[in-house]
Amino acid sequence: MMQEIDKLVGYIARNKNPDEGLRMKLTARVFFHYSMDHSDPLAPKVATFSSRGPNTASPGILKPDIIGPGVDILAAWPVSVDNATKSNATFNIISGTSMSTPHLSGIAALLKSSHPDWSPAAIKSAIMTSANVLNLAGLPIVDQRLNLGDVYAIGAGHVNPTKANDPGLIYDTQPMDYIPYLCGLNYTEKEIHIITQQKVNCSQVGVIPEAQLNYPSFSIKIGSNESQSQYYTRTVRNVGPASSTYNLDLLVPHKMGMSVNPGVLTFTEVNQKITFHVEFIAEDGAGKDGVAFGQGYLRWVSDKHNVTSPIAVIFDSK
After folding, report:
1. Among candidates 302, 189, 299, which has minimal Cα distance to 239?
2. Over the stretch 142-188, which tens digit does the pLDDT of each residue have?
3. What residue stretches are annotated with the Peptidase S8/S53 domain (predicted)?
4. Are 95 and 71 in contact (CB under 8 A)?
5. Which tens digits make up the pLDDT trace of 70-93?
6. What is the helix (H) or strand (E) element at residue 313, kind and residue range?
7. What is the rounded CA–CA span in Å between residue 236 and residue 125?
8. Short-list 67, 131, 137, 107, CA closest to 306
9. Are 233 and 277 a contacting pair, CB within 8 Å?
10. Which residues contact 185 (CB under 8 A, 6 or more apart)?
11. Rounded to an integer, what distance in angstroms lies between the CA atom of residue 159 and that of residue 126?
């Protein structure tokens, strides 16, 4: 086998146009073997060019929401790109956010093919709640400088297409749900009309806080002297086994108190929906100890699924 491959490689090396005038009959099968021994145990890492949060335009929506492959990606063009007149090279190894985009778009397309009834929001939820937060070494993801990747670097984590195809629960959002969200961002009704292509009366549809959107994460801002609780609701839909029970697993952010009701979600049907309530309250001294933000997660755990929503809390010391 190896002799046949050596002959093939040698012929290609000796001929500039190996496909022309080929007379030797040679059939070979080439196997690509991936060995963990040659991989980077700290992969995936967050690239230096990867966008960081928080989301200044809409702080109630966590950004970034997901990270994906974007470093040293083999890419192809229909024409030469190195400005060499005699070069026929149409491949290159490149990095950038524009490399991550097709990976995530392709994964979304695969999920839509597998689940034609899922909305874009459901697909995003599946991708986010099933993401990896650990690297190959089983440690928290770091960036290229080996600093710990916090929630404003990795969002929900690194995309895992296989798990996203079977997320267990999804946080769905319909197009009309965004209208009270846009009204809450203080867009004018004329500006909202440009987005929705329909007339909107904010006084009729009402407004919601940004963090109230049925998004698969929580991003809130709370004052250090704020004793009043912040309440939010989320609705999840069962896309796993009909009979499923999910127990709550919480990692409460620094200097925060949290309560979730109910603490157990019991489903008896596929596509059944359950709404739960979340309360956030800052502890005394939050934001006054030099810590600018806190992070944690809200996770629903069943026998087969872990459905994780990242939590980010910005402490406003003013």
Report:
1. 302
2. 998 999 999 999 999 999 999 999 999 999 999 999 999 999 999 99
3. 44-133
4. yes
5. 999 888 776 665 565 555 667 788
6. strand 306-316
7. 10
8. 131
9. yes
10. 58, 210
11. 10
